[in-house]
Write a structure and sequence with these properties.
Length: about 800
């Protein structure tokens, strides 16, 4: 058995009712049909009821229009039977409206009765129409089966009784088609109640759950549950499948297509819900089921147009915890539904959002309830802020993912939308924000664009240098290429590539698996020509990657920047020339809208500079840096044990790809000094290389060597020097580490003896560690530690910089 619900949007005209008939008749099995009022009848009834309460005789005119509209529909549908019933309902409605007019009083009970007529009439019309097609119809009076408490204007359902009655009436029914009105119900003593606006969905779900239906179909005027309200976001898309939990969140935060309570009965019984379009039957619609529903991060964006914030504040909030309890008790007493809660203990505030109408009530009743505390100045008068909207991102998978809220606030911030309050549901399935109402349309559209609409963005990479690191980068790129394209819509193309001998360009992108062959067939390398060609291609989103350690290549950066091409490099030379040159590079990059990303200049792939940049940009100040910055040197002093020759350990480090191409740069501490200098500069200080205090631990014979071979020879000859260094500290139970320090404007690099209680003592292998002491990290420094050398980790740091420039709003 199936339950089909047709909403008012599907019942507006004779043609749409013909559609409904054909949907019902094409369905072979047993079915229960739940119907809403026709078109916007419920809204019209509400208006008429209010006019009569106000003593405005216009109610008669509107009543007559409503009557005429229904009669016209009956005529168009050629309904003859039941016409008398319909007339009778209208006559009764008129009597009640006249009563309201005379008394100028509209109780929730009479309003429920008035509103219920919409569904009473529509269900009779449709039943009669389908009956006219020769089908036996079982007409059920919803008020005899759906039973509620006597809370008028949205009554809680008595499920025990309702389920029993529904089963009694429907399980053994011989009829193929049963029809009942949605939205309406009655108390045990038979007084008419309603289930809340939009409640026909709920009726249908209650019936489906009670009868254990195979499925519930919600027929409406859109193709399904969409990624955003299609009336606001033109590009909203249908969600193919979604979990109950996500659908609950989406509808709760405003997706009108489903009335939130209606999901629960089906969820509990595991009955799948399909939302379909009456006017586009071939479209599959949205399936709501258990399970995750798909692997997208954000499933939908939803909004409530009119909300207000209510704030309870004052120091009394902390000393008397009962306030919070009483606060919610008052809200419950008046049936006020809270959409959103945030609390700040530090500021002694509790803020909630309610729909605007409810907020007005809440504001009044809370001020009354807390009157004496307000007078005694325990708490401040309850405040209300009007003219707001909520928006919420919903998705099961957001739970395990960092950065979604960051992206959300980033996108809103960049578009000048300020956020009044933020809340993340404890299920982590939604992140919601309160914004000004006038910002809602813009916000929904930009968020939808950021989370759903991005087209594939092509990034053009121009690489010089395909040694260990360059090769590792390309192979990482190759393994991530598809994921980046599918999940992030970023296509990273290798558009130009060169080594010291050859270079090749291809606007279509060089194959990531055949780049070596292509390069071999390329033209002779010329660095200026390489740049000119990259510039001449004039492609959007171009990035130059210098994966060499060469000064002549780094001299090209300025020209790339001037053509708005960003530069990413592990090459430290450019950033460690004079401070004025460093500044000029950064300024030029900024002026031309390009970027200079050098994460891998310090500690390979560890996120040292990006972390530092976040600190500085957020207003922190670095006072003191203490670091082991050379993976190579740390490796050498960890491995060297006085037995194996020092030179052999150096050769091993080189073979394993930890050292600079020229290991003398590591051993002379030149490399550490450069890294320290970059840390100091990126911390915001003007500093030069020669201001770093350093005394080499190498024998002086190593100072002037003309080749790496000669250098190795001398280190071998000087083995005794290294053994002595080692033996002395080993005897004291200490270890040797080259430590870089910056404090109070002074910087030094020195080989130090590290005792076993020092945090650097256990720094193993080729690891690096950086300790930042800042305004915010005063006593306990911010520590970054991990592998600080090696082709793979360096390549992944370059990759991270590439993604920083490529991914939208990360
Ligand atoms: P019915 O009368 O069929 O119950 P409703 O008007 O209650 O229809 O709900 C359908 C409407 O909900 C659609 O016409 C659409 O404009 C609106 N809507 C708002 N948000 C969404 C959303 N996320 N997905 C689909 N429809 C939505
Ligand atoms: N007719 C009622 C309303 O408009 C119930 C419904 O359509 O779901 O609120
Ligand atoms: Mg509806």
């Amino acid at each position: 058995m199936k339950v089909l619900k047709f909403g008012g949007t599907s019942l507006g005209t004779a043609e749409s009712i013909h559609e409904i008939k054909s949907i019902i008749l094409s369905n072979p099995g047993k079915q229960v049909i739940v119907l809403s009022a026709i078109g916007k009848t419920t809204n019209e009834l509400q208006k008429i009821a209010e006019l009569s309460r106000e003593g405005d005789t216009q109610y008669i005119l509107l009543y007559e229009q409503l009557y005429e509209k229904h009669m016209k529909l009956c005529n168009e549908l050629k309904i003859s039977s039941y016409q008398e019933d319909v007339e009778a309902v209208f006559r009764q409605l008129r009597r009640i409206l006249d009563g309201v007019f005379l008394l100028k009083e509209l109780t929730p009970k009479s309003l429920d009765f008035i509103l219920s007529t919409g569904e009473l009439i529509s269900s009779k019309i449709i039943a009669s129409f389908i009956h006219g097609e020769g089908k036996a119809i079982h007409q059920i009076d919803a008020r005899e089966v759906i039973k509620t408490a006597d809370t008028f204007g949205g009554a809680p359902v008595n499920f025990e009784l309702t389920n029993r009655l529904l089963r009694e009436v429907l399980v053994d029914s011989k009829n193929q088609i049963s029809i009942l009105a949605g939205f309406i119900a009655s108390t045990e003593s038979g007084e008419t109640t309603t289930l809340g606006r939009g409640g026909s969905d709920y009726t249908a779900a209650i019936v489906a759950a009670a009868l254990n239906a195979e499925t519930l179909e919600i027929w409406t005027d859109v193709d399904g549950l969409m990624t955003a309200d299609p009336r606001i976001v033109r590009h909203a898309r249908v969600i193919d499948s979604i979990s109950y939990e996500e659908a609950i969140e989406l509808s709760h935060f405003g997706a009108k297509v489903l009335y939130p309570p209606s999901l629960k009965p089906c969820f509990e019984e595991g009955i799948p819900i399909r939302i379909k379009n009456t006017f586009n039957r071939s479209s599959a619609g949205t399936l709501v089921t258990s399970g995750n529903g798909g692997d997208q991060l954000v499933r939908g964006i939803t909004s409530l147009l009119n909300v207000s914030l209510i704030t309870l504040s004052g120091t009394g909030l902390l000393s008397i915890p009962k306030f919070t309890k009483d606060f919610f008790a008052v809200l419950a007493q008046y049936h006020l539904g809270v959409e959103f809660i945030t609390q700040s203990n530090a500021e002694h505030t509790l803020t909630i959002a309610l729909t605007s109408d409810q907020a007005e009530v809440a504001h009044r009743v809370l001020n009354e309830a807390f009157d004496s505390y307000i007078k005694d100045e325990f708490i401040d008068p309850i405040e209300i802020e009007r003219g707001l909207s909520t928006l919420a991102l919903v998705g099961n998978n957001m739970k395990n993912q960092v950065g979604v809220s960051g992206k959300m606030f980033n996108v809103l911030g960049r578009n000048g939308v300020s956020i009044k309050a933020i809340s993340q549901g404890s299920s982590e399935r939604n992140i919601s924000a309160i914004i000004k109402r006038e910002d809602l349309n813009k916000s929904l559209n930009i968020l939808h664009e950021a989370f759903f609409q991005y087209e594939t963005k092509r990034i053009n990479l121009f690489i010089i240098g395909v040694g260990n690191v360059g090769r590792a980068f390309i192979s990482q790129l190759q393994s991530q290429f598809d994921t980046l394209k599918e999940e992030h819509r970023v296509s990273l193309k290798l558009t130009g590539i060169a080594n010291s001998k050859k270079m090749v360009f291809d606007e279509q992108g060089i194959s990531l698996s055949l780049w070596k062959e292509r390069l071999m067939e390329g033209e002779a390398f010329d660095r200026e020509l390489f740049r000119q060609k990259a510039v001449a291609l004039n492609l959007r989103n171009s990035i130059f990657l210098d994966i060499t350690a060469s000064k002549s290549i780094s001299d090209e950066y300025m020209e790339f920047f001037k053509k708005s091409i960003s530069v990413i490099t592990p090459n430290k030379i450019a950033a460690t020339e004079s401070f004025s040159n460093y500044q000029l590079l950064k300024q030029t990059a900024r002026r031309f809208g390009s970027q200079f990303l050098i994460e891998t200049n310090v500690c390979a792939g560890l996120p040292v500079l990006s972390t530092l940049s976040d600190l500085i940009r957020s207003g922190d100040h670095v006072h003191h840096i203490e670091a082991v910055l050379s993976g190579t040197l740390n490796f050498l002093f960890n491995e060297y044990d006085g037995k194996r020759k020092f030179v052999d350990v150096i050769k091993q480090a080189k073979a394993e790809g930890y050292t600079e191409p020229d290991p003398r740069l590591d051993l002379s501490c030149e490399d550490v000094k450069r890294k320290l200098l970059i840390l100091i500069r990126e911390s915001g200080y003007s500093f030069e290389m020669d201001e770093i205090d350093h005394k080499s631990f190498m024998p002086s014979a190593c100072d002037q060597t003309s080749s790496v071979e000669e250098f190795y020879q001398i280190v071998e000859n000087e083995e005794a020097h290294f053994k002595k260094l080692y033996d002395e500290v080993a005897a004291k139970g200490k270890r040797l580490k080259v430590v870089a320090t910056y404090q109070d404007g002074k910087a030094s690099v020195a080989l130090k003896e590290i005792a076993s209680d020092h945090p650097f003592f256990h720094l193993e292998g080729k690891d690096n560690i950086v300790l930042f002491y800042t305004d915010r990290y005063k006593e306990q420094p911010l520590v970054i530690k991990g592998a600080g050398a090696g082709a793979e980790v360096t390549a992944s740091g370059i990759f991270a910089d590439v993604l920083r420039l490529s991914l939208p709003e990360t």
